[in-house]
């Protein structure tokens, strides 16, 4: 199972979600690989802060990396790809390699979150690999903000589903990343950890059960 976290926008939580979803899967006993596809190497930096990461981290940020990623992924039950911002070619490669593309979006700044470029890239890839699934993930949500109709309408217009799981803006996420720990190590009994567990389960369900391929979502939303 190959899951990538992608959005052309920086700072939406791609690396935070990649590391923690990888940590969640590893905790369940899976063999997990995290591919750092961002030249800035935030996930690799996180891994360098420790000696014994619960999953393997490799850096691979180049166009046409899909084939190599697929090859590497054969040795693991789950591969997570932490995508780059502003790198069209690499992003395209990440999408092609994926079973599921998670598109983190911040509920603030409604006008900019739609991430048209990434959505378009996913759709182009689905044209020749229709099995690629994709969904928006609400990330860095502030407090009790109601994620209202607006955001769901925009997802509908983009023709992609929006996952039920929401990740709030929580200090524990930022702290854990700074300390080189997964949220399960840093704050195992926390709402932050529970959000990641919920998200991980939901993504696994999307991949395993045959819900919401891109074309189904498109049909559902007209
Ligand atoms: N849910 C969250 N709560 C608090 N801080 C977060 C959260 N998600 C990300 N951050 C912080 O926001 C910044 C950008 O997050 P990051 O995961 O690196 O985004 P991206 O990989 O999309 O650029 C980092 O400093 C990170 O610690
Ligand atoms: Mg990042």
UniProtKB/TrEMBL annotation:
Family annotation (SUPFAM superfamilies): P-loop containing nucleoside triphosphate hydrolases
Domain of life: Bacteria
Higher taxonomy: Bacteria, Pseudomonadati, Pseudomonadota, Alphaproteobacteria, Rhodobacterales
Residues annotated as domain CobQ/CobB/MinD/ParA nucleotide binding: 3-180
Gene designation: parA
Pfam families: CbiA (PF01656)
Native source organism of the sequence: Sulfitobacter aestuarii
Gene3D superfamilies xref list: P-loop containing nucleotide triphosphate hydrolases
Protein name per the record: ParA family partition ATPase
């Amino acid at each position: 199972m190959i899951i990538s976290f992608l959005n052309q926008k920086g700072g939406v939580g791609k690396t935070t979600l990649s590391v923690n979803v990888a940590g969640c899967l590893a905790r369940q006993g899976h063999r997990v690989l995290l591919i750092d596809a961002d030249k800035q190497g935030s996930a690799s930096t996180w891994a360098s802060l420790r000696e014994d990461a619960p999953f393997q981290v490799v850096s691979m940020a180049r166009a046409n990396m899909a084939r190599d990623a697929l090859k590497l992924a054969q040795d693991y039950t789950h591969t997570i790809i932490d995508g780059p911002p502003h790198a069209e070619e690499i992003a395209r490669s990440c999408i092609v390699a994926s079973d599921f593309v998670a598109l983190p979006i911040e509920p603030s700044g409604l006008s900019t979150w739609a991430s048209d470029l990434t959505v378009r890239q996913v759709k182009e890839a689905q044209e020749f690999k229709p099995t690629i699934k994709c969904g928006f993930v609400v990330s860095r949500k502030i407090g009790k903000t109601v994620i209202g109709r607006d955001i769901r309408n925009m997802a509908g217009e983009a023709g992609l589903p929006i996952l039920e799981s929401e990740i709030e803006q929580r200090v524990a996420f930022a702290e854990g990343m700074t300390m080189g720990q997964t949220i399960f190590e840093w704050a195992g009994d926390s709402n932050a950890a529970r959000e990641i567990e919920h998200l991980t389960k939901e993504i696994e369900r999307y991949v395993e059960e045959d819900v919401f391929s891109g074309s189904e979502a498109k049909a559902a939303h007209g």
